[in-house]
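Re: Re: ligand-bound prediction request (bumping)

Still looking for help on this. To restate: I need the protein modeled with 1,3-dihydroxyacetonephosphate bound, output as structure tokens. Inputs repeated here so nobody has to scroll up.
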Amino acid sequence: MDISEKISALKTEKGVTILAHYYTPLGVHKIADRIGDSLGLSKIAKNEVETDYILFAGVLFMAETASVLNPAKIILSPDKSAGCPLANFLSGDDIEKYKEKYPNIPVVVYVNTTAETKAHTDICCTSSNAVKIAEKIAEEFKTDTILFGPDKNLASYVRNRTNLNIISIPGRGFCPRHNLFKKQDVINARKDHPKASLIVHPESPPEVQEMADYIGSTSGMINFVEEHENDSGYIIGTEIGLMEHLIWKNPSKNFFPLNTKSLCENMKKITLEKIYSTLKSIETPEEAKYQVKVPSNIAQKALLSIDKMIDYS
Ligand code: 13P
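Reply:
Sorry for the wait, this slipped through. Here it is.
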């Protein structure tokens, strides 16, 4: 048996559902029960898992979100050191200072934040629902201003699509992988593949977004490729791992990276070997090493913010 077969057998034996984000390695997609973007996986974790265990193949904030949404389940992370540099831009204390400066203004944060940060907010959003969430929370608070963090590029995306005054907090937050895309990358890629469609994630800089044919979440990008035939191919402006998924699912189509350096080392920490070790640890003293638990006082507050997002999206 190879490692994938061993994982499949073990997850059935131990009663585990494996949820994987698109940025994890392709081998992980192949053994996962469900693959999705941030919003899709949150919804699945909340309502659609029947097993007692969820193994979350993604960065830590995603596993935390699953734990907050479904505290009855045991959430396991194959590598709890898989963090998100974007999440480190905004803490709960930071948010409290912004609230003092801007009283009665709703606080929206991207799901790429810790549970502790989420606990200080009014609502979360993901890249696929950010515009809708911003509009709905503004309507609820009867205001045209919202505090939005921590990704300055996603804030700009929302600002350009609403009539709202979006105050980006802390104003300098970014995903190091998406933020590296430059106008020159687009110029180079368009020169090499002039008729290809350029599709980018909204965490990319505004000047890159402006040049794109489509901007959307990872699921949005996958749907775009499936719904828009282009014999000349697609230039992919997101974490490079999505390319592998697209090639796997669309073997007859052509994909080109916008920049080959856009690799998220944290997502790549989630390997098949670590997934196997995690599964083997179940019901042994080792299991605690992989469990993701959010303190209940934080989880209860974060839940309000995440649940509100799911209700509004
Ligand atoms: P989506 O899953 O919403 O596309 O966002 C992915 C992500 O975490 C980018 O850093």
